[in-house]
């Protein structure tokens, strides 16, 4: 067990954990922030996506020991009042069905818009290919990202 | 009361509680308890205008406070269909509530109080449309009466709107909240004195209403199964029998217990063979302080298994055997005319076999449940369950307590599709909390989920169809074989049940003079369950692909053929052609919910028109058609596929036409069809569970693939037919017709018919 100081949503926190513990479980179990979801444990579904220095990272497969002083952003920290352009677009398009994968979808889309603010449809599809939705909300996810990219 | 909702046999556990309908007696009983906070232990902290918050609760689904807050109970589980919004929307419409001032509270599992909570079979709206209307209308009636009396005007001149009672003549208005003192102890009116709204005055029913949890989900605040945190909660990860029926002989847990955070290893005794629909598998649970330690601890266990009789099971071999069996005479399940006559007079016979694999539900939220066994013989659970009452009963049986001692809180479900009907994972949490003497969350990993599901059954079919010398379809001989859901609880069930056959097989609707439907024996070597649309998945695939092939052989258009063979507009029945059997009609009496060929024809005509069926298409594009009524909802579907210059296949467009009777939430109807097309694309193109040496070969989404955004259908158009018929569900009906529509479109594009799913992307 080791103690790590990490920055999550702008707040510095100390956590004591097995260095191998994936960031997902640090966030969920040790910091009790439940917006980031567990889906596959092998970076295959994207439900656990968070931003690490503004890049999309599958937190289920990212050990705490690799975090260092990089800044972590979770769905809880994406905006002050849930008013990030993506969150507003998600609400406008009524994207979610069950909703479980949507934190990861939104965080992945946030990383996309940071690196590519006006993605083409094929850019968008390629960037979102790692995020599964079993309910099948893909058409609305796409519409919401395009709306957000126009409004940001 | 019992006639309210006949239960669909293949899906209901035995020992279910009696079906409930809110009766006058129940209204009265609860109406007399009209004090704040009795519903679900909700504490009303704030006070009303007079300093004291008063609550009017005319029935179990609805209460109104003197501060104008309307609280509606969602008693069905929310797994993505929108039901947590759609049923309250019905109550609110009849009440005349201000939707922006409606609070929705999830009911705990209590069927004696709320009625049926088994969220399954696309029947929530069908079952509760009328009760929800009455729940709202009763409250409205009382509020109107109170306001009318206050104003000295006839009640018949008053109505409700946006949370107020309104008297049109004098333009008087009063907030619901200001009437609570007057109505809270008033007698509940007789049901016959309560009138329902004229549908033309609906304000919420038939509209796009955003789901209640929309923003909570977009901000990560929505609470799913694994999100509940309790003080001192432990986490459990279980290594379960790799082969169904396997038993633990011995194990070594030294390495596990050496992992920091691991506190205990607990054996769970499994049911063996048959495994049962409501019991855990045999396994060893690792209890730890955090999920990571539990996962590592479970990996480190060294277990010696007695693998039992299923250890030689291979699903590809069983499929070959099942396919071979369909060439033999089977058990007759439906007969019309004499198929031999059709064969003798045939100008052409087409005979095909169809195969589909086991499918896993693979909800993105793997099963998880939290239990707090309190030591006084009671246990409190938080679970993403589709069937809270069954979960209560299964937990009670496992702990040997009364189900009244089990408090079942229902969280949001991160997908269900039938998986989370089964309470095995909830039972695990309860057993482990008792063993650990602390609250426990049992957390399934993706491998747990894919290896230990209740799978959609492996299936083989053979259809032999005859065309006579006049070019008419004269005979239809359909053989179907698949391990039955019932076999999971009773190994002697070797034929599909009438219920399973009524899902797209014995309800073959076409006017063919000679029909013979047969089943063959097969055994279950794993746990079989129900997956979104159940045996409609494989039946619709086979039937609609054969119909397309018949149209081609006859030189006719498949859409025209479907209309021709549905025949005149009329109600059709099947039971009289099922020797010793019964068409179950999804648990509804056939006279109350008839199979009407006219309604099916209208959706076929509509989808053909909307999709431009018959128009010339650019090079490299094709359309496929299919129609399938399921869960009492009529659906027709046209899928467009496209091959680009690099040979890459895509699905640019899908059209659905649907008649689900009265449409309650049009946005959620569309979303179910949009998602249904994606879900079905996975079934057709990418997903399969296979067994070797009794074990599932797929461990994660790299090998059990579901469709990703780049391969997903691009535009999905949903055309909802205006209807005043009784509403029926939309959760499952999108899946069955899409499967063969996609296959038929692929055939047009490639020239190759698809006889085995998945065909690969």
UniProtKB/TrEMBL annotation, chain A:
<dbReference type="Pfam" id="PF01799">
    <property type="entry name" value="Fer2_2"/>
</dbReference>
<dbReference type="GO" id="GO:0051537">
    <property type="term" value="F:2 iron, 2 sulfur cluster binding"/>
</dbReference>
<dbReference type="InterPro" id="IPR036884">
    <property type="entry name" value="2Fe-2S-bd_dom_sf"/>
</dbReference>
<dbReference type="InterPro" id="IPR036010">
    <property type="entry name" value="2Fe-2S_ferredoxin-like_sf"/>
</dbReference>
<keyword id="KW-0408">Iron</keyword>
<keyword id="KW-0411">Iron-sulfur</keyword>
<dbReference type="GO" id="GO:0046872">
    <property type="term" value="F:metal ion binding"/>
</dbReference>
<dbReference type="InterPro" id="IPR012675">
    <property type="entry name" value="Beta-grasp_dom_sf"/>
</dbReference>
<keyword id="KW-0560">Oxidoreductase</keyword>
<dbReference type="Pfam" id="PF00111">
    <property type="entry name" value="Fer2"/>
</dbReference>
<dbReference type="GO" id="GO:0016491">
    <property type="term" value="F:oxidoreductase activity"/>
</dbReference>
<dbReference type="InterPro" id="IPR006058">
    <property type="entry name" value="2Fe2S_fd_BS"/>
</dbReference>
<dbReference type="InterPro" id="IPR002888">
    <property type="entry name" value="2Fe-2S-bd"/>
</dbReference>
<keyword id="KW-0001">2Fe-2S</keyword>
<feature type="domain" description="2Fe-2S ferredoxin-type">
    <location>
        <begin position="2"/>
        <end position="78"/>
    </location>
</feature>
<dbReference type="InterPro" id="IPR051452">
    <property type="entry name" value="Diverse_Oxidoreductases"/>
</dbReference>
<keyword id="KW-0479">Metal-binding</keyword>
<protein>
    <submittedName>
        <fullName>Isoquinoline 1-oxidoreductase alpha subunit</fullName>
    </submittedName>
</protein>
<dbReference type="InterPro" id="IPR001041">
    <property type="entry name" value="2Fe-2S_ferredoxin-type"/>
</dbReference>
TrEMBL record, chain B:
<dbReference type="GO" id="GO:0016491">
    <property type="term" value="F:oxidoreductase activity"/>
</dbReference>
<dbReference type="InterPro" id="IPR052516">
    <property type="entry name" value="N-heterocyclic_Hydroxylase"/>
</dbReference>
<dbReference type="InterPro" id="IPR008274">
    <property type="entry name" value="AldOxase/xan_DH_MoCoBD1"/>
</dbReference>
<dbReference type="InterPro" id="IPR000674">
    <property type="entry name" value="Ald_Oxase/Xan_DH_a/b"/>
</dbReference>
<dbReference type="Pfam" id="PF02738">
    <property type="entry name" value="MoCoBD_1"/>
</dbReference>
<dbReference type="InterPro" id="IPR012368">
    <property type="entry name" value="OxRdtase_Mopterin-bd_su_IorB"/>
</dbReference>
<dbReference type="InterPro" id="IPR037165">
    <property type="entry name" value="AldOxase/xan_DH_Mopterin-bd_sf"/>
</dbReference>
<protein>
    <submittedName>
        <fullName>Isoquinoline 1-oxidoreductase beta subunit</fullName>
    </submittedName>
</protein>
<dbReference type="InterPro" id="IPR046867">
    <property type="entry name" value="AldOxase/xan_DH_MoCoBD2"/>
</dbReference>
<dbReference type="Pfam" id="PF20256">
    <property type="entry name" value="MoCoBD_2"/>
</dbReference>
<feature type="domain" description="Aldehyde oxidase/xanthine dehydrogenase a/b hammerhead">
    <location>
        <begin position="219"/>
        <end position="309"/>
    </location>
</feature>
């Amino acid at each position: 067990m080791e103690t790590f100081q990490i920055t999550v949503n702008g707040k510095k926190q100390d956590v004591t954990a097995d260095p191998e513990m994936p960031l997902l479980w640090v966030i969920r179990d040790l910091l009790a922030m439940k917006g980031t979801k567990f889906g596959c444990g092998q970076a295959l579904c994207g439900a656990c996506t968070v931003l690490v220095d503004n890049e999309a990272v599958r937190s289920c497969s990212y050990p705490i020991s690799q975090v260092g002083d990089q800044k972590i952003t979770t769905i809880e920290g994406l905006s002050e009042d849930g008013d990030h352009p993506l969150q507003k677009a998600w609400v406008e398009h009524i994207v979610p069905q069950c909703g479980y994968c949507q934190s990861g979808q939104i965080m992945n889309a946030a990383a996309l818009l940071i690196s590519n603010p006006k993605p083409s449809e094929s850019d968008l599809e390629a960037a979102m290919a790692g995020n599964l939705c079993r309910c099948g909300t893909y058409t609305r996810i796409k519409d919401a990202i395009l709306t957000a990219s126009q409004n940001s | 009361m019992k006639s309210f909702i006949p239960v669909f046999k293949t899906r209901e556990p035995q020992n279910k509680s009696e079906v409930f309908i809110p009766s006058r007696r129940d209204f009265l009983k609860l109406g007399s308890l009209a004090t704040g906070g009795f519903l679900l232990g909700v504490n009303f902290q704030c006070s009303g205008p007079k300093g004291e918050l008063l609550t009017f609760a005319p029935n179990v689904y609805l209460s109104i406070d003197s501060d104008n807050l309307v609280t509606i109970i969602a008693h069905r589980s929310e797994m993505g269909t929108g039901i947590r919004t759609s049923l309250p929307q019905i109550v609110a419409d009849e009440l005349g509530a201000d939707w922006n001032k409606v609070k929705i509270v999830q009911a705990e599992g209590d069927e004696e109080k709320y009625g049926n909570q088994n969220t399954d079979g696309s029947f929530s709206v069908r079952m509760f449309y009328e009760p929800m209307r009455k729940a709202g209308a009763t409250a409205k009636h009382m509020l109107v009466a109170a306001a009318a009396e206050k104003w000295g005007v006839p009640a018949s001149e008053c109505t409700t709107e946006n949370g107020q009672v309104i008297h049109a003549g004098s333009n008087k208005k009063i907030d619901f909240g200001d009437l609570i003192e007057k109505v809270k102890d008033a007698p509940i009116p007789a049901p016959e004195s309560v009138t329902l709204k004229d549908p033309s005055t609906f304000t919420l029913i038939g509209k796009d209403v955003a789901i209640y949890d929309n923003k909570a989900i977009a901000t990560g605040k929505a609470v799913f199964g694994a999100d509940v945190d309790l003080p001192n909660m432990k986490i459990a990860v279980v290594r379960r029998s790799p082969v169904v029926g396997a038993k633990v002989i011995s194990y070594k847990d030294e390495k596990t217990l050496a992992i920091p955070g691991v506190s205990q290893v607990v054996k769970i005794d499994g049911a063996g063979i048959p495994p049962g629909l409501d019991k855990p598998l045999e396994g060893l649970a690792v209890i730890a302080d955090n999920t990571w330690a539990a996962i590592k601890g479970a990996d480190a266990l060294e277990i010696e298994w007695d693998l039992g009789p299923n250890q030689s099971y291979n699903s590809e071999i069983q499929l070959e055997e099942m396919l071979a069996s369909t060439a033999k005479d089977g058990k007759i399940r439906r007969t019309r005319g004499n198929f031999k006559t059709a064969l003798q007079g045939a100008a052409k016979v087409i005979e095909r076999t169809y195969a589909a694999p086991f499918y896993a539900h693979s909800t993105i939220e793997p099963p998880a449940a939290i239990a707090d066994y309190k030591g006084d013989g009671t246990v409190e659970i938080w679970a993403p369950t589709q069937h809270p009452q069954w979960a209560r009963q299964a937990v009670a049986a496992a702990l040997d307590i009364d189900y009244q001692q089990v408090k079942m809180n229902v969280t949001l479900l991160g997908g269900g599709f039938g998986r989370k009907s089964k309470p095995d994972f909830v039972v695990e949490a309860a057993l482990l909390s008792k063993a650990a003497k602390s609250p426990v969350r049992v957390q399934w990993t993706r491998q747990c989920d894919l290896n230990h599901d209740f799978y959609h059954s492996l299936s083989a079919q053979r259809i032999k169809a005859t065309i006579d010398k006049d070019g008419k379809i004269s005979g239809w001989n359909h053989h179907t074989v698949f391990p039955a859901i019932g076999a999971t609880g009773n190994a002697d069930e070797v034929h599909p049940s009438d219920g399973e056959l009524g899902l797209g097989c014995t309800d073959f609707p076409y006017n063919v003079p000679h029909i013979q439907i047969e089943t063959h024996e097969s055994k279950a070597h794993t746990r079989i369950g129900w997956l979104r649309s159940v045996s409609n998945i494989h039946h619709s695939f086979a039937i609609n692909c054969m119909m397309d092939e018949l149209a081609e052989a006859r030189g006719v258009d498949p859409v025209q053929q479907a209309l021709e063979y549905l025949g005149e507009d009329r109600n059709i029945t099947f039971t009289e052609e099922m020797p010793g059997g019964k068409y179950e009609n999804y648990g509804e009496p056939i006279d109350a919910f008839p199979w009407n060929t006219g309604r099916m024809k209208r959706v076929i005509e509509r989808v053909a028109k909307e999709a431009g069926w018959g128009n010339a298409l650019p090079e490299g594009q094709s359309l496929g058609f299919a129609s399938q009524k399921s869960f009492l909802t009529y659906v027709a579907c046209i899928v467009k596929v496209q091959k680009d210059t690099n040979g890459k296949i895509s699905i640019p467009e899908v059209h659905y036409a649907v008649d689900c009777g009265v449409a309650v939430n049009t946005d959620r109807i569309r979303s179910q069809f949009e998602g249904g097309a994606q879900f079905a694309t996975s079934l057709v193109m990418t997903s399969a569970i296979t067994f070797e040496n009794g074990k599932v070969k797929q461990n994660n989404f790299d090998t059990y693939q579901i469709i990703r955004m780049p391969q997903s259908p691009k535009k999905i158009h949903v055309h909802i037919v205006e209807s005043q018929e009784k509403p029926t569900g939309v959760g499952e009906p999108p899946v069955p017709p899409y499967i063969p529509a996609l296959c038929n479109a692929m055939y047009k594009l490639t020239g190759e018919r698809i006889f085995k799913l998945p065909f690969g992307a």
